[in-house]
Amino acid sequence: MRAPRTSRGPPAVLLMLLLAVGCTGGYKPVIIVHGIFDGPKQFENLSMFIKKQRDLNVVSKTVKRSVLPPKDKHQTHKTNSKGPSMEPWGTPKKVHPGTEVPIISLYNYKCSLKPLWVQVQDFRKAIEDTMKKFPEGVHLLCFSQAVTVAVITTSADLDNVESVAGGLICRAVLSTSPNHNVHTFISLSSPLAGQYGDPHHRAGYLRSNTFLPLVNGEKPHKFITDWRENVLRIKKMVLIGGPDDGVITPWQSSHYGFYDTNEDVVEMRNQEFYKNDTFGLKTLDARGDVSVCVQSGVEHTHWHSNFTVFTNCIEKWLI
Ligand SMILES: *[C@@H]1O[C@H](CO)[C@@H](O)[C@H](O)[C@H]1NC(C)=O
Ligand SMILES: *[C@@H]1O[C@H](CO)[C@@H](O)[C@H](O)[C@H]1NC(C)=O
Ligand SMILES: *[C@@H]1O[C@H](CO)[C@@H](O)[C@H](O)[C@H]1NC(C)=O
């Protein structure tokens, strides 16, 4: 266990090895939570992107490290001429556990119509169990398919406005988990500020919706301060969406924008929940930790399979 081989190589080799491991060994796993009517199968491509990219990065960073201009040219040149062995860190899967991409498999497909707080409880349990295995932290990537949202919010039965999908389940999990170790929360096309229908039933929304107004802190409740603190434990919030989504309405809801009563879209920073900082969004933004990524040409069901979206909006945060 004590690296019996250290005495064999010059210190430079050791140093490079440590650097390489330190740099590539720290990838955090990405927990994926799907949306309504989705299941884990839909995310096979995304988890493949993540795994492949990480494997490639390990190799390319390793190569870069091994040709870094040395402080002591002489010595490192010698080292290089011996040929830096790729083996210790050239087999990425062994080097860093961060290639793990657990997809939470709960409430798949039609089961995702269960009351949201019931789902949140179970998702929280599953996510917490996963987080415990990775004390260094995890990333949480949540996708929302808002089909049900549309159904529910246009329904007259406002008691059933238990709206709204994967990204919101994740927000509720973050809010209600005092010990979570989520580093980056990535919301992939989720109706974070609600969905079409809400502004016309504003009073009903606040009265009857037992989910979003609580998570948004738009309706007072006794956990509001605790929930806000829990949300602020994250290091980064990444909001992804775009105008050609076709399902999230308004699409700006993926970035916390929403209609006013004239159906003009009010952007995140002019929303009351932002200005009042009811759940920490303003604080996160002031910290510089809210990243918005707008991509055109992506339909709702393609967000998680589009490699350009992955490289433009997701990849750089999965450290
Ligand atoms: C995954 O990618 C393949 C090849 O591009 C595509 O045919 C398939 O539909 C994708 N899967 C999903 C769930 O989007
Ligand atoms: C924001 O604060 C104002 C003034 O205290 C209050 O009237 C309003 O209801 C709050 N709105 C939200 C969404 O918290
Ligand atoms: C993939 O995303 C890019 C923008 O990020 C978009 O231009 C392109 O149309 C998308 N392709 C598909 C098949 O969704």
Automatic annotation (TrEMBL):
SUPFAM superfamilies: alpha/beta-Hydrolases
Alphabetical UniProt keywords: Hydrolase, Signal
Catalysed conversion reaction: S-hexadecanoyl-N-acetylcysteamine + H2O = N-acetylcysteamine + hexadecanoate + H(+)
Gene Ontology terms, MF aspect: thiolester hydrolase activity
PROSITE patterns, per database record: PROKAR_LIPOPROTEIN
Cleavable signal peptide: 1-26
Domain of life: Eukaryota
InterPro entries, alphabetized: AB_hydrolase_fold
Keyword Cell membrane: no
EC number: 3.1.2.2
Entries under Pfam families matching the protein: Palm_thioest (PF02089)
CC terms in the record's Gene Ontology section: lysosome
Region feature (Disordered): 68-94
Recorded family membership: Belongs to the palmitoyl-protein thioesterase family.
Protein name (record): palmitoyl-CoA hydrolase
